[in-house]
Design brief:
With 447 residues, the chain is α+β, with helices and mostly antiparallel strands. The protein has five helices and 31 strands. It folds into three domains: 32-154, no CATH class; 162-293, Immunoglobulin-like, CATH 2.60.40; 297-405, Immunoglobulin-like (Sandwich), CATH 2.60.40.
């Protein structure tokens, strides 16, 4: 019996010890975390401005140095009054943040912020291409004891667009080429009670936006793998400017907040300038505009005599590419291509023996085909391929070719060696014939 009692007593003691261990474990606080989403690449900093304090009336206290932040609440002097005013205010987050004073001291951190204690935290962010609004994070005592993760969505507005050519090969282009551009802009966060916009303004020089009817087709995707939507926008200033309003992607629910929107549209190179410059700005922030440039290049032919000692004026050429012939417009600029040489336009060498044309693609191969030779020379039947020069500046690309012509062959003319030889041959034949005649006559008389 005594042994049974001892066993029962031991079991009770063990059960009590286990129960106390479980209770202690459950009561022991872990720590919360604060996770900031949508701020990848940003520099984050925080300051805890209200902390838990069980000795105060509210159970909270303003952290030393941050009393002035809450001056707009309560009586503006007593910290407990200010905390009550903060707790009782029926205001949205944007209004609260607007009333906060300046947070002078913050500590840098990388999301998520760990080992977080109960209280109110002010978070700020800085990053290239975005303006970050002040963020608030409230960590409750329950969050603290349960080790919860408190998530804060970064409130940011893009200040720049990320722009690129859809096809990198369009760095060098011909006049008349279509060039497509892709712009990336992030949908801003809409604070409660606040406003936000997303308007891309684009301007092109050296080209015009391609129209479908009287408007520009714009492809819009949310995320690179998102569903494509085609919307039409009007172009202004002779089709060189366009305004793409994407503010419809912003909502109070912030469904698309911090999601990248990809916008694609097409322009046509018109040769009005050698450099095709496409500039995009967002929300009229011109100081952080994103630009993409393309370039046209030149072709040059030099005409010389056979031994290369003299340049020749008046040689007429057609420019050839893959069996097509260039139509040359005003100011010796490319104005299209023809299937037949008779429909092409030509260029003519000047007094220095050269001719230059503009508006060509430095990634293509071109040749010069002689149509009319200079006076006193005959056509060269072999086309001269233009060779691209080794030039670093993208706006100074040029391909050059040299073609040599031979002089015209001599023709017989009156009084020349050809006529004299012919006459001499005739006289000789006549003399032979006369000799044979008299010889034959003499022979007959002797008989």
């Amino acid at each position: 019996m005594r042994n049974v009692k001892k066993i029962i007593t031991l079991v009770i003691v063990l059960a009590m010890m286990l129960s106390m261990t479980v209770i202690a474990s459950a009561a022991e606080p872990t720590s919360a975390q604060i996770k900031v989403t949508g701020a990848e690449g940003a520099t984050l900093a925080y300051a805890q401005v209200i902390k838990a304090d069980p000795t105060t009336e509210t159970g909270w206290e303003i952290v030393d140095g941050y009393t002035d932040l809450f001056a707009a609440y309560g009586d503006g002097e007593n910290t407990q009054s200010m905390i009550k005013g903060w707790m009782d205010a029926e205001e949205d987050e944007n209004t609260r943040i607007g009333k906060l004073g300046t947070v002078g001291t913050t500590e840098a951190f990388t999301s998520p912020l760990t080992d977080v204690k109960p209280g109110l935290y002010v978070i700020k962010g800085e990053g290239e291409g975005y303006t970050y609004s002040t963020m608030l994070a409230y960590v409750s005592y329950e969050d603290y004891t349960k080790g919860n993760i408190v998530t804060v969505v970064a409130k940011k507005t893009p200040t720049t667009t990320d722009k690129e050519l859809v096809d990198s090969a369009d760095t060098y282009v011909e006049i008349g080429d279509e060039v497509s551009y892709k712009v990336k802009a992030t949908v801003p966060y809409l604070p409660k009670g606040g406003t936000a916009s997303l308007v891309i303004k684009d301007e092109i020089t050296g080209g015009k936006f391609k129209l479908n009817g009287d408007k520009v087709d714009v492809s819009i995707k949310l995320g690179e793998e998102g569903t494509e939507t085609i919307k039409q926008y009007s172009a202004t200033d002779n089709n060189t400017k366009i305004e793409i309003d994407l503010s419809y992607l912003i909502s109070e629910a912030n469904t698309n907040a911090n999601v990248d929107a990809y916008v694609t549209y097409t322009a046509i190179v018109d040769g009005s300038q050698k450099t095709i410059n496409n500039k995009a700005t967002i929300n009229n922030n011109d100081t952080t505009a994103s630009e993409v440039k393309s370039y046209t290049a030149k072709l040059k032919i030099t005409k010389k005599n056979q031994d290369g000692t003299k340049t020749l004026e008046g040689a007429v050429f057609a420019v050839v590419k893959a069996g097509k012939y260039a139509v040359i417009g005003e100011n010796n600029k490319l104005n299209g291509w023809s299937e037949t040489i008779t429909e092409a336009n030509y260029i003519t060498t000047g007094p220095d023996g050269t001719a230059t044309v503009d508006g060509f693609d430095a990634d293509e191969t071109y040749a010069f085909h002689e149509v009319v030779a200079p006076e006193g020379y005959k056509l060269n039947p072999a086309d001269a391929t233009a060779e691209w020069q080794d030039i670093d500046e993208p706006d100074a690309q040029i391909a050059e070719a040299i073609m040599n012509d031979t002089t015209l062959s001599s023709l017989p003319y009156t009084g020349g060696k050809g006529t004299a030889a012919f006459t001499g041959c005739g006289v000789l034949l006549m003399s032979i014939a006369a000799g044979l005649y008299y010889s034959n006559k003499k022979h007959k008389s002797s008989k």
